[in-house]
Amino acid sequence: MATINLQKGQKIDLTKGNLGLSRITVGLGWDEVSKPKTGGLLGGLFGGGSSSAAIDCDASAVLLDSQGKLTKKDRLVYFGNLKSGDQSVKHSGDNLTGAGEGDDEQIQVDLSKVPSDVHKIVFVVNIYDCVKRKQDFGLIANAFIRIVNPVNEQEFCKFNLTDSYAGKTSLVVAEVYRNNNEWKFAAIGEGTNDGSLSELVRRYQ
After folding, report:
1. Structural domain span for residue 52
2. CATH code of the domain covering residue 171
3. Nearest to 78 by CA among 88, 89, 64, 67
4. pLDDT digits (tens, 9 = 90+) for 135-184
5. Total count of domains within the chain
6. Structure pTM?
7. How many CB atoms lie within 10 A of CB 8?
């Protein structure tokens, strides 16, 4: 089965019909732009601040209730809490540089184990210590999120973040949500000015 390439705002079924994806691997990746310049990859996804420090992007998953609220601390899965309290969502661990090919960080989701009061899982990426280091997503290129079937490692769908995120310090990348007892994936790609994960999470409290 060929990969389905999603555009911003598009949605796709994960569990309905013949798909039957009870477990998914959510892969997130990005590359650091070596030298700011005009034009080029991703429609000019360059510019913004500059710093000699490596850009440390952190992927996280936020498990929300039917009101879109984060109700328990252990439902924020990130480098400091690699598993949700119910064990349905697990993080691969922190990648400090984003170097190399493929996924930089992965989040495993067992949809069959997600508690019934969790209606949405939002996947976000922020830049660690971005304010002090004067870094933003204008220094990042080739950002993407993809869904992989962990049974056969087959890539099911992919969303390339092609907008310009110069000046933005956090990204709400995508979400997996319940719909009539099924699960769907939605490509969001919204940039924010939240300076840390804790600031970003306040949106859901």
Report:
1. 4-204
2. 2.60.60.30
3. 89
4. 999 999 999 999 999 999 999 999 999 999 999 999 999 999 999 889 99
5. 1
6. 0.87
7. 15
